Amino acid sequence: MLKVENVTKYYGTFKAVDDLSFTVSDGEIFGLLGVNGAGKTTTFRMIIGLLDKTSGTITLNEKPISYDVTNEIGFLTEERSLLTKLTVKEQVIYYGVLKGMNESDILKKLDYWLERFNISDYKERKIKELSKGNQQKVQFITAIINNPKLLILDEPFSGLDPINVQLFMDVIRDLKNKGTSIIFSSHRMEHVEMFCEKLVVLVKGKSVLEGELKQIKKEYRKKNIHVEAVGVDIEALKKVNGVVEVIENETELVVKIASDENVNDVFAFIKKCKEVSKFVVEDATLNEIFLEKVGVLYEN
Ligand code: ATP
User: Does ligand 1 lie within 6 Å of residue 14's CB atom?
Assistant: First the structure.
C-alpha cells in the first residue's frame, strides 16, 4: 500500500503541492488528476524519490522511500524516455539491472512481455527503428519488468491506436488483479472512468475533489436522461422543472437535469409523447463533473 500523508512541496517560494494525502491499496487503480501544472508530476517525482518533499511522509508498504523501495516501483513517464540507440533487449536489461534484477530473470520476463505485446520479432532491433506505438510498448515493458508493487502510469495510452489501447488495458487489469497498486494519470476522463475506483483531483497543488468514483458520481446530483420518443416538443421540454439543457443527437435526446429530484417531472412530460422507446437516467460523466468542479477554481 502506498501512503501519501500531508505532503507539501515548495519550489523556492512557490507551493506546487499543498498538504496532499491519499492512499493506494494493493490491487487498486487510483486516479491522480488535474489540469496542466496542477502538481501531478511533482507528486510522482516525490513518490519515486527523485524530488525531496518539503514536508509530509510517503511510504510504500510502511517503508519510507529509499533505493530499496524505489526498486519496487515502476514509472511510465508522460515524456517518453527510451535509450533509442540501444536494442529493445539492451534497453530492458539496462533498466532491469538498475532495479536490482539479474540478467537471466530479466530475459525470462522480457520474452513473456514481448510475446504478450506482439513484438517478439523486435527484440534485437534498435529502438529508434520502431514505430511510436511499439516504442511505447517497450517503455511499458521497461516500467513493469521488475514486477513492481507500485506502478505509476502517466498518460499510458497517448498515441496508441484503439487495438493497442485495449491491449494495454488488459495488461493493466491483469497487473491490478495480481495485487499491483496502480496510479493512473490522464486528461482523458473516459479512460479514468473505465479504470479508477478512487481518485483525487488537484488544482494548484491542492485536492479539490477526492474519494470513490461511484460515491462522487452519486453525490453529484446533476443527471443526464437519454430519451427516444416521437413528437417531443423540445421547447416545452426545456421549460420542465429542473431541465438545464436538451441536446438533440442523431438517435436520441439527452436531457440534462439539475438534480435527480427532477427525474419524475421529465418522466411525466415524456410519458405523454408518442412511441417512447427509451428513458434512461444516467449519472453525469466524470468529464462533466471535472469541468464543473475544476473549471471555476482553475480560472480564479
Ligand atoms: P502537466 O499536466 O502539464 O504535466 P503537472 O500537474 O504534472 O502538469 P507539475 O509539473 O507538477 O504539474 O508542476 C506543478 C507546478 O510547479 C507548475 O506551476 C510548474 O510550473 C511548477 N514547477 C514544476 N517544476 C518546477 C521547478 N523545477 N521549479 C519551479 N517550479 C516548478
Answer: yes
Cell of 16: 506546487
Residue ID of nearest Cα to ligand 1 atom 29: 11
Atom of ligand 1 nearest to the CA of 39: 11
C-beta 96 within 6 A of ligand 1: no
Whole-model pTM: value is 0.89
- Quickly tell me which residue has 473549471 as its cell: 295
Query: 144: closest CA among 199, 87, 90, 99?
Result: 99
pLDDT digits (tens, 9 = 90+) for 194-250: 889 999 999 999 999 999 999 999 888 899 999 999 989 999 999 999 999 999 999
27 lines ligand 1 (CB under 6 A): no
How far apart (Å, rounded) are the C-alpha atoms in residues 101 and 92?
11
> Cα–Cα distance between 263 and 225 in angstroms, integer?
8
Rg (CA), the chain: 23
Nearest C-alpha to atom 27 of ligand 1 is from which residue?
11
What are the DSSP E strand ranges found in the chain?
2-11, 14-24, 29-34, 55-60, 63-64, 73-76, 150-154, 181-185, 198-203, 206-212, 223-230, 243-248, 253-257, 274-283
SS3 16: strand
Provide the b/e sequence for 32-53 (b: ≥16 CB within 10 Å): bbbbeebbbbbbbbbbbbebeb
Taking the chain, what is the end-to-end CA distance rounded to the nearest angstrom?
A: 35
Instruction: State phi, psi for 19 to the nearest 5 degrees.
Output: 55, 55
Domains of the chain: 2-217 (3.40.50.300), 221-283 (3.30.70.980)
- Is any atom of ligand 1 closer than 6 Å to the C-beta of 148? no
